[in-house]
Write a structure and sequence with these properties.
The structure is a single chain. The chain is 58% helix and 0% strand. The protein has 2 domains: 115 residues, no CATH class; 153 residues, Four Helix Bundle (Hemerythrin (Met), subunit A) (Up-down Bundle), CATH 1.20.120. It is mainly alpha-helical and 296 residues long. It is elongated and about 80 Å long. Helix 1 packs antiparallel against helix 4 and helix 7 runs antiparallel to helix 8.
């Protein structure tokens, strides 16, 4: 089970309703900036179930979403530790045990501290194993691509074959467009026509009697996925092997269109998902080698 920080924030507002009027603003408005009564609350054993559930939810939040500054990270660890210790005392029938505001948290109840910290955490972030794409100079675009790459791998791990296939293909297309724009060919029309001739020859060799690479457009933003792959291969941004893998992924991605899967007698499955992610990895490897780390 994957839980995101905003879900835990919503749980705290619902399970610890000390500031009812403020809590009612959520989710129609953003979470209140502060919950004074919860911040000052003293919780006894009757709150054991809620605090235990809070810890269970926190355990299900992926580590990459808990993006906190060092001081905030320390507050997070302290808060969860205090709550865990208090639950142990309640389980030992310590009727006098109370979960109180504590000086180490600035006289704040640990539950409210967690509420405050989680509000600052994102619901989306790439997994730590996601390639950093340092060759992409645009910081925001790089972050968006890394989210999609992480999402494709997450979809694969959850058995969402179509999602993994489509996301991986979309990232390959976006990377190739960015790379071609970052390093435009000196004579794009000649390169484009050369790529088209090779595309047509390969398609005929594979049994396609009427291949169509498409006509040249001056702006790469108007090029199809197949055209981006062909040109990227021609200008040595990607290898022939990577281009072949990317073209397979292009074909798989087209299966999302109505009737395409039936006509081709192919469906997205674990094989297409792994193939698409493999093509993505090959594309990233080639672009990393050929473009280098251009980001600041």
């Amino acid at each position: 089970m994957r839980i995101v920080p905003s879900q835990v924030v919503a749980f705290i507002l619902k399970a610890f309703p000390f500031d009812r009027q403020l809590a009612q603003l959520y989710p129609t408005m953003k979470p209140p900036e502060g919950l004074p009564k919860l911040k000052e609350a003293v919780l006894d054993m009757s709150w054991r179930a809620q605090t235990a559930a809070l810890l269970d939810l926190l355990a299900a939040v992926p580590g990459e979403l808990l993006i906190l500054a060092p001081d905030a990270q320390a507050e997070f660890v302290i808060s969860t530790s205090i709550i865990r210790d208090k639950i142990q005392e309640w389980d030992q029938n310590r009727l006098d045990a109370r979960l109180r505001p504590t000086e180490v948290l600035g006289n704040e109840n640990p539950v409210h501290a967690l509420y405050r910290l989680l509000k600052a955490c994102p619901d989306e972030a790439p997994e730590t194993t996601t390639p950093d794409l340092q060759f992409v100079a645009d910081v925001e675009f790089r972050a968006s691509l890394r989210l999609d790459i992480s999402g494709a791998h997450r979809a694969l791990s959850h058995g969402e074959w179509k999602g993994a296939t489509v996301l991986a293909g979309s990232v390959i297309e976006a990377l190739l467009l960015w790379a071609i724009q970052a390093r435009p060919p000196a004579d794009s029309k000649t390169i484009f026509e050369r790529a088209g001739a090779i595309y047509d020859a390969r398609e005929k060799a594979d049994g396609n009697a009427s291949p169509s690479f498409g006509k040249y457009e001056p702006s790469p933003t108007r090029w199809s996925f197949a055209q981006l792959i062909g040109v990227a291969e021609q200008v040595a941004l990607i290898t022939k092997h990577t281009a072949k893998a990317a073209n397979l992924t292009r074909g798989y991605r087209n299966l999302i269109h109505s009737g395409a899967a039936e006509r081709k007698a192919v469906v997205c499955g674990i094989d297409t998902a792994h193939s698409a992610l493999g093509a993505l990895q090959a594309t990233i490897r080639d672009l990393t080698k050929n473009l280098g780390a251009t980001a600041p």
